[in-house]
Amino acid sequence: MECVLSDKVLVLNRAWVAINVATVRRALTMVWQDAARIVGTEDYTTYDFESWVEASKAAREGRLIRAVNFTIRAPEVVLLTRFAGVLSQDVKFSRRNIFDRDHNTCQYCGRRFDRADLTLDHVVPRCRGGLSEWENIVVACLKCNTRKGHRLPGEAGMNLIRQPVKPRWATRVGCKLGRERKPSWERFLDAAYWDIELKP
């Protein structure tokens, strides 16, 4: 059951816009506390905790959670009952997200490493005016980072395998979805993509 409780659930705001991803455990807690409703992925009916337990009685498929007195189907989408806003759409500029963007791969030699064997490199070194921003930081192995030193890649005879850019993960969702993305989420993510306000 622990594995099922760690599955991912898409979280929608009151306007049915995708804003986050939570675990099944967190989603069921929100529903129990009346802060969210479970969205039936077949017909988009919303359920409180008791009605979801009742609807789950006929369930023979899907991820099931067995409690002492009942069996409940793991939700895939929940709708918040109180929050109508949207979360920040910026991908957080963090070490974890830089490593995720570059797939734990040295951006100079192209080899994949364990995170412990990788460093962050300023393409334009800080001592030469380089900034700590998405477009100037890449993942590099220790050997390549040492070889490059305080030089530009071209000066060190090295080439980037890919230019660093700020990632654009998941339309309107402030986190990377990756393999956790479920078919039942597509309608909400596609709608968010088309409804997002474009900047001039």
Topology (SSEs and partners):
Elements: H1 2-5, E1 8-12, E2 18-23, H2 24-32, E3 36-39, E4 46-47, H3 49-56, E5 64-66, E6 71-73, E7 77-80, H4 95-101, E8 118-122, E9 137-141, H5 142-148, H6 186-195
Parallel strand pairs: 1-7
Antiparallel strand pairs: 1-2, 3-4, 3-7, 5-6, 8-9
Describe the structure.
This protein is α+β, with helices and mostly antiparallel strands and 200 residues long. It folds into two domains: 2-88 and 170-195, no CATH class; 95-156, DNA Binding (I), subunit A (Orthogonal Bundle). The chain is 22% helix and 18% strand. The chain has six helices and nine strands; from the N terminus they run αββαββαβββαββαα. It has helices at 2-5, 24-32, 49-56, 95-101, 142-148, 186-195; strands at 8-12, 18-23, 36-39, 46-47, 64-66, 71-73, 77-80, 118-122, 137-141. It has a five-stranded mixed beta sheet. Strands 5-6 form a two-stranded antiparallel ribbon. A two-stranded antiparallel ribbon has the order 8-9. The longest helix has 10 residues, at 186-195. It starts with a helix and ends in a 5-residue tail after the last helix. Mean pLDDT is 84; it is low at 193-200.
